Amino acid sequence: MLIVMKVDATAEEVQDVEERVRTLGFRPNRIPGSERTAIGVTGNQGAIDPAEFEGLPGVKEAIRVTRPYKLVSREVKAADSIIDVGGKPIGGRRVAIIAGPCAIESEAQTRTIAAAVAEAGADFFRGGAFKPRTSPYSFQGLGLEGLKILAAVRKETGLPVITEAVDEESMAMVEEYADAAQIGARNMQNFSLLKRAGRARLPIFLKRGLSATLEELLMAAEYIVSEGNYRVFLCERGVRTFADHSRNTLDLAIIPSVKSVSHLPILVDPSHGTGRRDKVLPLSCAAVAAGADGIMVEVHHEPHRALSDGPQAILPGDFARLVKDVRAVAALFDRDRD
Ligand code: PEP
Ligand code: MN
User: Fold this and answer.
1) All domains in the chain, ordered by first residue
2) The whole model's pTM is what?
3) Which of 58, 60, 64 is nearest to 19 (CA)?
């Protein structure tokens, strides 16, 4: 149920409606809007009768939400969400470019790559300090030391930083040092982490699970938003299929699908989506042409020495070319400005 308040509804009327929702045993979720306030009602098992709210002062209408996800649906919020990450927008007109190594390996490695991607025109810097690896014997990341390197690099380059949190403990650390926290594919349905992300002080970059459907992805986002954190942006990063010409199969069809049912921004990660560096440029351009709000790509100056995901990392010079091509595609679709 979505309760839409009148444009001139007073703060007191909004509070009274929220109180009424609580009295009925449900939860009111105030939806930020530029013109009017809306209140999403969650916590109900079956349908609620709109008449419960429609007679209350200040209420314009009460609408049933038909999707299983509520607060992230376009039924509840028609306008695209624009998320502020370290003072820069994700979503809206400008296509965001996030770049950096898979993992923070050392201060020198991180500074070299950050300087190169900043110079080439990246908007945001990425790098994992906590790495979810398939093997327990693989490099697990530098942890807190990695976060400190990231924070130093942010100061040096001015680029906001995005890094992964793998559990509640690392989320608390990421909150201290980064501009947005990533939840990786393997944790997309880690519900306790999602709830913690919903109480986090920073925006959440939620990646699609290795075999998640569109509905499962949006329900995962709903977990975060229902705890009060509306600053969520999504990422398509490839799913498992029988194809063996690439590590995963990048599902660009999910972009218009997300756009039609949700107001959240969706980005594309062609690095994990393909696992091969020669596919990163063409699929970055394709993602933007298909309507993605941005791309995230892995860059390394010495991919053969990378401690994780070397085969998919592109060189800084290739990244500079990618930025030019992606911006040119964005311009074709009138998406090269804020
Ligand atoms: C990553 O972005 O470094 C990462 C581990 O991605 P994913 O969770 O999509 O595998
Ligand atoms: Mn990686």
Assistant:
1) 2-63 (3.30.70.1140), 83-332 (3.20.20.70)
2) 0.93
3) 58
